Amino acid sequence: MKVNLLKLMLLMTVIFTMNSCSSDSSEATADNTSAVIVENYTYSDAELQAMKLINDYRVSIGLNPLEKINHISYKSEEHDFYMIDNNVVSHDGFVSRSENIMKVLGAKTVGENIAYNYNSPQAALTAWLNSPAHKQNIEGNYTHFGISIRENTTTGKKYYTNIFAKI
Known about the structure:
- The structure is a single chain.
- By secondary structure, the protein is an alpha+beta fold.
- The protein has helices at residues 2-20, 24-33, 45-60, 70-86, 94-105, 121-129, 132-138; strands at residues 67-68, 109-116, 144-151, 158-166.
- Strand 3 (144-151) and strand 4 (158-166) form a beta hairpin.
C-alpha cells in the first residue's frame, strides 16, 4: 500500500511539473516581440572608446575592423541591466541574445565578452586580452559588434557586455 501511494504521488508530481513548467507560449511571445530591430542607440564616450580600442587592436594584428550595429549594443545593454538588477556577473541568457541577433540581423555566428568592475575601457580590454577565451572572441572571425557599459548607481561598479557577430 505504501509503495503504491509513493508511485501515485510520483506520477502526480511528474504530471504537475510537466504542465506547470511549460513555457513554450511565453517564450514564443517574448521572442516575437524582440524580433524587431533596434535602430537607435546612444553611445557614451566610454563605449565609443572601447569600440575604437578593440578595432585598433584588431587592425594592429592584421584583422578587419568591426562595424558597430545599434541593435547589438541594445542587446548588450539589456544584459548589463540584467546583471545589475540581479547582482550577478554572468552570460545568463546568451543563447537567447545570440538567437535574436541571428534572427533579426541574419548573423551566422555570435560571441560575447563580459567584464565587471573595470574603471576604464582600456582596463577591460587589457583583461580580455589576458584571457584566452575573451581574446579569441576579440580576434574572432566577426564582422560586426556592439557594446554597452553601464554603472550600478548603488555600488558605482561598471558592467561591460561586448557582443560580436559575423553577418
